Amino acid sequence: MGHDLGIQAAALCESTPCLTKTIADLANPAVRRSLQSFIDGLDRFPSTGVPDEYAALFEKAFPGENDRRTYIAAKLNGAKPSYGHMALATFMKASRTKIV
């Protein structure tokens, strides 16, 4: 499946009249498969798994740069790094890992 199906759903509703109720339960595997299949069939977005798939959907769902910044800021609001984040940062600083 693609990255964040919430972004995919938002892009889909932005570009195609749809009932948001139909795709509201993104935790349901059947809804996720149906949404991904529909998006794949539109031929308006990159294929699943290609490097620019998420970026294209994100930009379609949030066309303005300020909209994208607001979305990301809301997702990060109140978030705190976990022990794993701190350990990863330590490894990166020590050049023990370069790619995450």
**Topology pattern, helix = H, strand = E:** HHHHH
Number of helices, where a helix is a run of at least 4 consecutive DSSP H or I residues: 5
Largest sheet: none
The coarse overall form would be elongated
Arithmetic mean of pLDDT: 81
The termini sit apart by 20 Å
Please, what is the oligomeric state? single chain
Strand composition percent: under 5%
Q: Which structural category do the helix and sheet elements fall into?
A: mainly alpha
The helix content is: 55-70%
Number of beta-strand segments: 0
Q: Which stretches are low in confidence, meaning pLDDT under 50 for 5 or more residues running?
A: none
Over all CA atoms, what is the radius of gyration?
Answer: 16 Å
Please describe the structure with a list of short key phrases separated by commas or semicolons.
single chain, 100 residues, 57% helix, 0% strand
Task: Write structural notes for this entry.
The structure is a single chain. The protein has 100 residues and is an all-alpha fold. It is 57% helix and 0% strand. It contains 5 helices and no strands. It has helices at 5-15, 29-42, 53-61, 65-76, 83-93. Helix 1 crosses helix 3.
In short:
The chain is mainly α and 100 residues long. Helix content is 57%, strand content 0%.
Note the topology.
Blueprint: H1 5-15, H2 29-42, H3 53-61, H4 65-76, H5 83-93
